[in-house]
Amino acid sequence: MLKSFSSKITAIALACLVLYGCSQKKEKNEVTVHELSDTDMLNPTNYQSADAGYYLSQMFQSLWGNDPRTLEMTPILAKALPEEKYDSATGLLTYTCEIREEAKWDNGSPITAHDVAFSVKCYKAPVINNEGNRPYFELISDVVEYPENPRKLTIVCNEKYILAESICGSFLVMPQYIYDPKKLMDQISIADIQKKTEEVANSPVMKEFATEYNSEKYQREKGFISGSGPYEFTEWVPGQRIVLSKKKNWWGEKYSSEYAYWANPDKLIYQVIKDQTAALTALKGKKLDVMAGIKSKDYVEQLKPNEEVNKNFNLSTPLSMAYTYFGINMRNPKFEDAKTRTALAHLTDVEKIIKVIGYDLGKRVNGPINPYKKGAFNDTITPFEYNIDKAKALLAEAGWKDSNGDGTLDKKLGGVQTEFNITFTYNAGNDTRRDAALIFKESCRQAGINVDVVPQEWSIYIENQKKHDFEMFYGAWIGSVNPDDPKQIWHTESINGGSNYVYFGNAETDKLIEAIRSELDEEKRNDLYRKFQVIVHEQVPYIFIWSPMEKIAISKRFENIETFIVRPGFNEAGFKLVQK
């Protein structure tokens, strides 16, 4: 009888222990981040997708980069920020630094200046499939190594350029032993690549290296994607997820107090859910820890009022570095007069667009420089007020009138009486842009202008902008924390082959842009930025709309979470599992 009673007590005790163990079961120290689509590849120089860049930044490191919290430059692989020198006699700009002594590759070998030089060659080489990144590296003409100190290096730039420091420090450094085990690139110098592009491209050595480097294994295969960062690539299930796992005994642990070295979760899982509704369901069901890029309507109507969501997630809306705009074809005869373009700006009810379409999750912008850049941003410019009467007066001054009494303004253009009809295009499927265009259409109707709002499939929409085959369109640009280089969007050289789709500019603005690009003194450069913004405002090539806020949800399973203006708006590697 005693034996039987004892057995029952033991069984009960075991059951309690099991239940206690279940209740005390630790949550997985893994962060699952929502992605809308699969990325293209994980090759550090050849990728095009922004998502790939985020993943690679967890696996690879750069010499220095921007802290997204302060936007200030900070050393990463380098011991300290580089020593900058400009030689006016030679026109060369140099950056000298030394790599941290502890910095090591996964095989235990030190990271050296030779690895940096190898990486630069991969960014610059003509037959590497990195067309999107290569132009930025034309600036770098050499990487000087120091035999007495293999960790010291000097990056040489062939011109004075405001983005030189960023370009020279922010590229991902790769281990040559992984990406070039035969050391083929040792036979080709950076100077050879810089001066003899065609000869280098046709050399057997370069062809052999490029064939291997551009291959699938360096894009998707475990063991061939390896850097000095805290995470290693462990899994890619196409169309479903990419998994990065934290390395054991990673060399950078001793710097864990520095933001660039934060690496707390054991795994980073990037989960692809292409349907936004399905993604929201997964978030509410706690299948996702992080979701960004949430539609304003969903954020306001589905997430914010939901008690369960607020119990389990932190909701955040940091301002983004992006801005949206209505682009105007300045060479179209209808829009050649600045008064006409200004009138269209007065017919754009920006405040209504932000409030009704954007749910007030954004801030109005008055030009191409983000207000966060306080020195460069011109806060003296007053945005165009929404005023239909003022628009009508300007249109009359520009020669538009309703000559036949049909309710539509007209004007003689090229000898032909032309009614004021506008074709306004946007990318099909983007309801936000469509609805904003419809608000604009109604205001124009009241002023005697007909607007036809036309959706276009994405590739056609983009191609038409490149060919200047549009009248007006809804566009957007994403900026960075670095100094703005206006050339790609605003210089006349960028009308064909660049992004100056609206035909903006003349000799005066080109000269101003070139001065901005070469002015290393920040205060002087800011003066030039402010002048440039005044001209853009007066010429009205764009009707500037807003800088939208990011809509981000992050699980309360974690602490040490921050959101910031730099995309993607969070740093999942810094999340710490809440200890219960």
Question: Could you please describe the fold and organization of this structure?
Answer:
- The strands form 8 sheets. A 5-stranded mixed sheet has the order 18-17-19-13-20. A 4-stranded mixed sheet has the order 1-10-9-8, with helices on one face.
- The protein contains 20 helices and 24 strands.
- The relative contact order is 0.12.
- With 580 residues, the chain is an alpha+beta fold.
- Residues 1-24 have low confidence and may be disordered.
- α13 runs antiparallel to α15 and α19 (507-518) runs antiparallel to α20.
- The two termini are 42 Å apart.
- It has 3 domains: 61-215, Dipeptide-binding Protein, domain 1, CATH 3.90.76; 231-318 and 550-577, D-Maltodextrin-Binding Protein, domain 2, CATH 3.40.190.10; 322-548, Dipeptide-binding Protein, domain 3 (Roll), CATH 3.10.105.
The CATH C-level name of the largest domain is Alpha Beta
Write out the strand line-up for the largest beta sheet, numbering strands in chain order: 18-17-19-13-20
- Percent helix, as a range, is 25-40%
What does the main sheet amount to? 5 strands, mixed
Number of domains: 3
Low-confidence stretches: 1-24
Average the pLDDT over all residues and give the rounded result.
93
Question: How many distinct beta strands?
Answer: 24
Separate helix tally: 20
- Global geometry: globular
What's the architecture of the largest domain in CATH terms? Roll
- Estimate the strand proportion: 15-25%
Q: Cα-atom Rg, whole angstroms?
A: 28 Å
Q: Note the gap between the termini.
A: 42 Å
Q: Strand pairing plus helix content: what structural class?
A: alpha+beta
CATH structural fold name of the largest domain: Dipeptide-binding Protein, domain 3
| Assembly state | single chain
State the fourth-level CATH superfamily of the largest domain: Dipeptide-binding Protein, Domain 3
